Amino acid sequence: MSKRKILITGGAGFIGSHLVRRMVLRYEDYEIYNLDNLTYAGNLENLRDIESKANYHFIKADINDFEEVKALFDRYRFDSVIHLAAESHVDRSIEDPLAFVHTNVLGTMHLLYAARQTWKDDYTGKRFYQVSTDEVYGSLGDTGLFREDTAYDPRSPYSASKASADHFVRAYFHTYGMPVLISNCSNNYGPYQFPEKLIPLVINNILHRRTIPVYGDGSNVRDWLWVEDHAEAIDVLFHNGIEGETYNIGGNNEMQNIELVHLLCDITDEMLGRPVGDSRALITFVKDRPGHDRRYAIDASKIKDTMGWEPGTTPEVGFRKTVRWYLDNDSWLDAVTSGEYLKYYEKHYHAR
Ligand code: NAD
Ligand code: DAU
Known about the structure:
The protein is α/β, with parallel strands linked by helices. The protein has helices at residues 14-26, 66-76, 90-95, 97-119, 157-176, 198-207, 227-240, 257-272, 301-307, 315-328, 330-336, 340-350, and strands at residues 4-9, 30-36, 56-60, 80-83, 127-133, 180-185, 187-189, 212-215, 221-226, 246-249, 254-256, 283-286. Nicotinamide-adenine-dinucleotide binds at residues 9-10, 12-16, 36-39, 41-42, 62-64, 84-86, 88, 103, 107, 131, 133, 162, 185, 187-188, 194.
């Protein structure tokens, strides 16, 4: 039997790089193709340790370019797609929503279209896995959890674009019988996350003794999951998930933003040998994100009951490992925060 050929899109980004590493190392008999156009958020440094593996292949390409995507399907005949490539930052989607429609909606359509043309409706051994977000479900009040049957109610251009893409993926299942799978995950944390996102931004600002911007009153709630646990869940679902189904993935770890920022300040101060409370003094409450979703929380019982999957990393361990990694890899932080990012940071935070 010929080797399985899996196209992973967005593999040079945060979650994608952890997934690519896992798949390359665990499945030597699979060919793993990492397609990424290396936006500001994509970085091949994230994969240096596995780039010489025989079953790893990098393809620099843009999912917004249909001809290019189709030519790649024709050339490599991928039998599966795990689709992560996206514009992923909510604040950027508020500033430039069209870019999110292009990549997240049209880019996903291009992959679906090319996959169907290539597979020609013979779906034996094929799979299209869409990696999505809990943000498609909207915003919770103080109680309740997002379940797989919670109605979509996206409220930011980012979540609206992901919701739209999910609808197209489902349409391909119902209309064309394509074997698709969707997972909707909560906030990830860990190494290689671009420091526009809360956790690495806080650690980076502490390192440089810059103010720590907390939106609104800091009481918004997110459910945090260690990124390698997410990669494991994707692996489990890719192999065992039922086609046409959706699975929620969460960390069972709800925290208010301010609670999390305090924790990060305290861990970082301890690791840097700074006085207790030093970094908390950097916290500044700034103007709230427009349409800021109040609370996300996941009911992850379906993946637990049907796949036996649960997060393996406790927050106590995960947050310390995360801070340690950014402190040990400050050169990675410096490299990715030069250039375009500085312009974004100045514009986003100083226009507030
Ligand atoms: P990221 O921004 O770190 O990485 C995105 C990757 O996609 C980058 O490597 C980028 O270069 C690539 N990319 C962007 N546009 C592209 C294009 N047009 N063509 C090819 N490649 C392109 O994102 P992330 O945080 O790793 O998220 C990955 C996926 O997981 C996204 O689909 C996101 O919606 C989803 N997700 C993220 C989280 C989270 O907490 N970060 C949670 C749930 C779901
Ligand atoms: O829930 C999954 C989603 O989590 C993913 O789909 C997104 O791709 C990912 O970016 C993330 O979205 P959030 O908007 O929740 O993540 P972010 O790190 O931007 O913000 C986390 C919380 O912290 C949110 O309530 C906004 C707040 N925040 C964020 C930044 C960047 C601040 O208070 N200050 C900040 O400077």
